[in-house]
Protein backbone atom coordinates (compact mmCIF):
# COMPACT_ATOMS: atom_id res chain seq x y z
CA UNK A 1 0.00 0.00 0.00
CA UNK A 2 1.32 3.48 -0.89
CA UNK A 3 1.42 5.89 2.04
CA UNK A 4 1.57 9.67 1.96
CA UNK A 5 5.32 9.50 2.56
CA UNK A 6 5.89 7.52 -0.62
CA UNK A 7 6.39 9.73 -3.68
CA UNK A 8 4.07 8.84 -6.53
CA UNK A 9 6.88 9.12 -9.06
CA UNK A 10 8.80 6.30 -7.40
CA UNK A 11 5.93 3.86 -7.62
CA UNK A 12 6.02 1.52 -10.55
CA UNK A 13 3.79 -1.58 -10.80
CA UNK A 14 6.43 -3.19 -12.96
CA UNK A 15 8.93 -2.94 -10.11
CA UNK A 16 6.83 -5.13 -7.83
CA UNK A 17 8.00 -8.69 -7.57
CA UNK A 18 5.66 -11.34 -8.84
CA UNK A 19 3.61 -12.51 -5.90
CA UNK A 20 2.52 -16.11 -5.21
CA UNK A 21 -1.02 -14.96 -6.02
CA UNK A 22 0.13 -14.22 -9.57
CA UNK A 23 1.42 -17.75 -10.07
CA UNK A 24 -1.72 -19.17 -8.45
CA UNK A 25 -3.63 -17.84 -11.46
CA UNK A 26 -1.78 -20.40 -13.58
CA UNK A 27 -2.88 -23.38 -11.48
CA UNK A 28 -6.35 -23.77 -13.02
CA UNK A 29 -5.20 -23.52 -16.68
CA UNK A 30 -2.30 -25.87 -15.95
CA UNK A 31 -4.57 -28.41 -14.28
CA UNK A 32 -7.00 -28.23 -17.21
CA UNK A 33 -4.20 -28.90 -19.72
CA UNK A 34 -2.96 -31.81 -17.64
CA UNK A 35 -6.42 -33.37 -17.42
CA UNK A 36 -6.87 -32.82 -21.15
CA UNK A 37 -3.62 -34.61 -21.94
CA UNK A 38 -4.42 -37.49 -19.56
CA UNK A 39 -7.88 -37.89 -21.11
CA UNK A 40 -6.27 -38.28 -24.55
CA UNK A 41 -3.66 -40.74 -23.27
CA UNK A 42 -6.35 -42.83 -21.59
CA UNK A 43 -8.50 -42.88 -24.71
CA UNK A 44 -11.34 -40.95 -23.11
CA UNK A 45 -11.08 -38.42 -25.94
CA UNK A 46 -10.66 -39.33 -29.59
CA UNK A 47 -7.42 -37.67 -30.70
CA UNK A 48 -8.70 -37.44 -34.27
CA UNK A 49 -11.48 -35.15 -33.07
CA UNK A 50 -9.83 -33.56 -30.03
CA UNK A 51 -6.07 -33.13 -30.39
CA UNK A 52 -3.96 -33.28 -27.25
CA UNK A 53 -2.06 -30.25 -25.88
CA UNK A 54 1.24 -31.89 -26.86
CA UNK A 55 0.06 -32.41 -30.42
CA UNK A 56 -1.23 -28.82 -30.61
CA UNK A 57 2.12 -27.53 -29.35
CA UNK A 58 4.00 -29.63 -31.93
CA UNK A 59 1.74 -28.37 -34.72
CA UNK A 60 2.26 -24.76 -33.66
CA UNK A 61 6.02 -25.29 -33.67
CA UNK A 62 5.92 -26.81 -37.16
CA UNK A 63 3.78 -23.96 -38.48
CA UNK A 64 6.10 -21.40 -36.92
CA UNK A 65 9.24 -23.07 -38.31
CA UNK A 66 7.82 -23.23 -41.82
CA UNK A 67 6.89 -19.53 -41.70
CA UNK A 68 3.27 -20.28 -42.49
CA UNK A 69 2.05 -19.18 -39.07
CA UNK A 70 3.90 -15.86 -39.22
CA UNK A 71 2.50 -15.03 -42.66
CA UNK A 72 -1.10 -15.69 -41.65
CA UNK A 73 -0.61 -13.99 -38.29
CA UNK A 74 0.62 -10.75 -39.86
CA UNK A 75 -2.41 -10.67 -42.15
CA UNK A 76 -4.79 -11.18 -39.23
CA UNK A 77 -3.04 -8.52 -37.15
CA UNK A 78 -3.33 -6.03 -40.01
CA UNK A 79 -7.05 -6.70 -40.45
CA UNK A 80 -7.75 -6.48 -36.73
CA UNK A 81 -5.64 -3.33 -36.36
CA UNK A 82 -7.30 -1.57 -39.31
CA UNK A 83 -10.80 -2.47 -38.11
CA UNK A 84 -10.04 -1.47 -34.54
CA UNK A 85 -8.55 1.87 -35.62
CA UNK A 86 -11.64 2.73 -37.66
CA UNK A 87 -13.90 1.60 -34.83
CA UNK A 88 -11.96 3.76 -32.36
CA UNK A 89 -12.19 6.87 -34.53
CA UNK A 90 -15.92 6.46 -35.17
CA UNK A 91 -16.77 5.36 -31.63
CA UNK A 92 -14.86 8.20 -29.98
CA UNK A 93 -16.24 10.81 -32.39
CA UNK A 94 -19.83 9.69 -31.86
CA UNK A 95 -19.39 9.50 -28.07
CA UNK A 96 -18.03 13.05 -27.99
CA UNK A 97 -20.91 14.32 -30.11
CA UNK A 98 -23.52 12.61 -27.94
CA UNK A 99 -21.80 13.06 -24.61
CA UNK A 100 -20.96 16.75 -24.81
CA UNK A 101 -24.34 18.08 -25.96
CA UNK A 102 -28.01 17.19 -25.67
CA UNK A 103 -28.53 17.98 -29.34
CA UNK A 104 -25.78 15.54 -30.28
CA UNK A 105 -27.31 12.85 -28.07
CA UNK A 106 -30.69 13.33 -29.70
CA UNK A 107 -29.07 13.08 -33.14
CA UNK A 108 -27.01 9.88 -32.78
CA UNK A 109 -27.80 8.01 -29.57
CA UNK A 110 -31.09 6.45 -30.67
CA UNK A 111 -29.53 5.12 -33.88
CA UNK A 112 -26.58 3.61 -32.03
CA UNK A 113 -28.77 2.07 -29.35
CA UNK A 114 -30.76 0.34 -32.09
CA UNK A 115 -27.64 -0.67 -33.97
CA UNK A 116 -25.98 -2.28 -30.98
CA UNK A 117 -28.87 -4.72 -30.59
CA UNK A 118 -28.27 -6.12 -34.06
CA UNK A 119 -26.09 -9.27 -34.21
CA UNK A 120 -23.32 -7.78 -36.31
CA UNK A 121 -21.90 -11.20 -37.20
CA UNK A 122 -25.20 -12.00 -38.92
CA UNK A 123 -24.60 -9.10 -41.30
CA UNK A 124 -21.93 -11.02 -43.22
CA UNK A 125 -24.20 -11.71 -46.26
CA UNK A 126 -25.07 -8.03 -46.51
CA UNK A 127 -21.44 -7.01 -46.15
CA UNK A 128 -20.53 -9.30 -49.04
CA UNK A 129 -23.27 -7.74 -51.19
CA UNK A 130 -22.24 -4.21 -50.23
CA UNK A 131 -18.44 -4.48 -50.22
CA UNK A 132 -17.66 -7.58 -52.27
CA UNK A 133 -15.40 -10.41 -51.13
CA UNK A 134 -12.13 -8.54 -50.68
CA UNK A 135 -10.67 -7.00 -47.53
CA UNK A 136 -13.46 -4.45 -47.01
CA UNK A 137 -16.07 -6.80 -45.48
CA UNK A 138 -13.49 -8.35 -43.15
CA UNK A 139 -12.28 -4.99 -41.85
CA UNK A 140 -15.82 -3.60 -41.83
CA UNK A 141 -17.04 -6.45 -39.64
CA UNK A 142 -14.31 -5.74 -37.09
CA UNK A 143 -15.04 -2.00 -37.24
CA UNK A 144 -18.75 -2.47 -36.63
CA UNK A 145 -18.08 -4.73 -33.67
CA UNK A 146 -15.71 -2.21 -32.06
CA UNK A 147 -17.80 0.95 -32.42
CA UNK A 148 -20.48 0.14 -29.86
CA UNK A 149 -18.40 -0.76 -26.77
CA UNK A 150 -16.20 2.30 -27.37
CA UNK A 151 -19.21 4.58 -27.80
CA UNK A 152 -21.24 3.24 -24.86
CA UNK A 153 -18.42 3.31 -22.33
CA UNK A 154 -16.99 6.68 -23.34
CA UNK A 155 -20.46 8.23 -23.46
CA UNK A 156 -21.14 6.89 -19.97
CA UNK A 157 -17.79 8.18 -18.74
CA UNK A 158 -18.41 11.68 -20.10
CA UNK A 159 -21.86 11.88 -18.56
CA UNK A 160 -20.57 10.44 -15.29
CA UNK A 161 -18.15 13.28 -14.55
CA UNK A 162 -18.98 14.91 -11.21
CA UNK A 163 -21.00 18.07 -11.85
CA UNK A 164 -19.62 19.68 -8.71
CA UNK A 165 -16.16 19.61 -10.24
CA UNK A 166 -17.52 21.29 -13.37
CA UNK A 167 -19.20 23.95 -11.23
CA UNK A 168 -15.89 24.64 -9.49
CA UNK A 169 -14.19 24.89 -12.90
CA UNK A 170 -16.78 27.44 -14.03
CA UNK A 171 -16.24 29.41 -10.84
CA UNK A 172 -12.50 29.47 -11.56
CA UNK A 173 -13.22 30.84 -15.02
CA UNK A 174 -12.33 27.82 -17.16
CA UNK A 175 -13.80 27.96 -20.65
CA UNK A 176 -15.90 25.12 -22.08
CA UNK A 177 -12.97 23.81 -24.14
CA UNK A 178 -10.69 23.90 -21.08
CA UNK A 179 -13.27 21.99 -19.04
CA UNK A 180 -13.47 19.33 -21.75
CA UNK A 181 -9.69 19.04 -22.08
CA UNK A 182 -8.70 19.13 -18.41
CA UNK A 183 -11.73 17.70 -16.57
CA UNK A 184 -14.24 15.83 -18.73
CA UNK A 185 -11.89 13.78 -20.93
CA UNK A 186 -9.51 12.75 -18.08
CA UNK A 187 -12.55 11.85 -15.97
CA UNK A 188 -13.94 9.69 -18.77
CA UNK A 189 -10.63 7.93 -19.43
CA UNK A 190 -11.29 4.95 -17.10
CA UNK A 191 -14.57 4.20 -18.87
CA UNK A 192 -12.91 4.56 -22.26
CA UNK A 193 -10.24 2.00 -21.35
CA UNK A 194 -12.94 -0.46 -20.24
CA UNK A 195 -14.62 0.03 -23.60
CA UNK A 196 -11.32 -0.51 -25.37
CA UNK A 197 -10.85 -3.86 -23.63
CA UNK A 198 -14.32 -4.95 -24.72
CA UNK A 199 -13.66 -3.72 -28.25
CA UNK A 200 -10.46 -5.76 -28.49
CA UNK A 201 -12.23 -8.96 -27.52
CA UNK A 202 -15.00 -8.30 -30.03
CA UNK A 203 -12.42 -7.47 -32.70
CA UNK A 204 -10.87 -10.94 -32.48
CA UNK A 205 -14.30 -12.58 -32.41
CA UNK A 206 -15.34 -10.65 -35.51
CA UNK A 207 -12.10 -11.52 -37.26
CA UNK A 208 -12.68 -15.25 -36.79
CA UNK A 209 -15.89 -14.92 -38.79
CA UNK A 210 -14.58 -12.31 -41.22
CA UNK A 211 -11.61 -14.41 -42.28
CA UNK A 212 -13.94 -17.10 -43.55
CA UNK A 213 -15.26 -14.74 -46.25
CA UNK A 214 -13.39 -15.90 -49.35
CA UNK A 215 -10.05 -15.38 -47.61
CA UNK A 216 -6.71 -16.58 -48.96
CA UNK A 217 -4.68 -15.80 -45.84
CA UNK A 218 -5.10 -15.20 -42.14
CA UNK A 219 -5.50 -17.38 -39.07
CA UNK A 220 -9.21 -17.89 -39.82
CA UNK A 221 -8.39 -19.01 -43.35
CA UNK A 222 -5.81 -21.45 -41.98
CA UNK A 223 -8.41 -22.97 -39.65
CA UNK A 224 -11.02 -23.17 -42.41
CA UNK A 225 -8.58 -24.94 -44.73
CA UNK A 226 -7.62 -27.37 -41.96
CA UNK A 227 -11.30 -28.19 -41.48
CA UNK A 228 -11.51 -29.51 -45.03
CA UNK A 229 -8.70 -31.97 -44.26
CA UNK A 230 -9.96 -32.85 -40.74
CA UNK A 231 -6.78 -31.42 -39.20
CA UNK A 232 -8.13 -30.76 -35.73
CA UNK A 233 -4.61 -30.06 -34.46
CA UNK A 234 -4.31 -27.08 -36.81
CA UNK A 235 -7.83 -25.88 -35.98
CA UNK A 236 -7.13 -25.98 -32.26
CA UNK A 237 -3.76 -24.33 -32.83
CA UNK A 238 -5.51 -21.46 -34.60
CA UNK A 239 -8.02 -21.13 -31.77
CA UNK A 240 -5.13 -21.04 -29.31
CA UNK A 241 -3.46 -18.28 -31.33
CA UNK A 242 -6.67 -16.22 -31.24
CA UNK A 243 -6.92 -16.74 -27.48
CA UNK A 244 -3.29 -15.70 -26.92
CA UNK A 245 -3.73 -12.63 -29.11
CA UNK A 246 -6.77 -11.62 -27.10
CA UNK A 247 -4.90 -12.16 -23.84
CA UNK A 248 -1.88 -10.20 -25.05
CA UNK A 249 -3.85 -7.20 -26.27
CA UNK A 250 -5.89 -7.13 -23.07
CA UNK A 251 -2.66 -7.17 -21.05
CA UNK A 252 -1.37 -4.20 -23.06
CA UNK A 253 -4.48 -2.17 -22.25
CA UNK A 254 -4.27 -3.12 -18.57
CA UNK A 255 -0.63 -2.03 -18.53
CA UNK A 256 -1.60 1.29 -20.11
CA UNK A 257 -4.40 1.58 -17.56
CA UNK A 258 -1.96 1.24 -14.66
CA UNK A 259 0.21 4.01 -16.07
CA UNK A 260 -2.50 6.40 -17.22
CA UNK A 261 -4.65 5.96 -14.10
CA UNK A 262 -1.86 5.85 -11.53
CA UNK A 263 -3.66 8.63 -9.65
CA UNK A 264 -6.58 6.36 -8.78
CA UNK A 265 -6.45 4.77 -5.29
CA UNK A 266 -7.69 1.46 -6.73
CA UNK A 267 -4.65 1.33 -9.01
CA UNK A 268 -2.19 2.36 -6.30
CA UNK A 269 -3.37 -0.47 -4.05
CA UNK A 270 -3.28 -3.15 -6.74
From TrEMBL:
Keywords: Cell membrane, Membrane, Transmembrane, Transmembrane helix, Transport. The chain crosses the membrane at residues 26-44, 77-98, 110-133, 139-158, 234-253. Residues 73-253 form the ABC transmembrane type-1 domain. Pfam families: BPD_transp_1 (PF00528). Its main location: membrane. GO terms for biological process: alkanesulfonate transmembrane transport. It is found in: Cell membrane. InterPro entries: MetI-like, MetI-like_sf. It is a multi-pass membrane protein. The keyword tRNA processing does not apply. It comes from the Bacteria. GO terms for cellular component: plasma membrane. Belongs to the binding-protein-dependent transport system permease family. This is ABC transporter permease.
Amino acid sequence: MITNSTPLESYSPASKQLSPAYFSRLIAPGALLLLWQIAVWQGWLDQRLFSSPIQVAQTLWQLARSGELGEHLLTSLWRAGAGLALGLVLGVALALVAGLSRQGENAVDALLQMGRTLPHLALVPLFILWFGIGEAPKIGLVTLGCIFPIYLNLFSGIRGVDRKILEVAQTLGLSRSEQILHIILPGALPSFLVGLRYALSIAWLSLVVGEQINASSGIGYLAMTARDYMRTDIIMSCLLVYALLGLATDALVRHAERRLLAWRPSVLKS
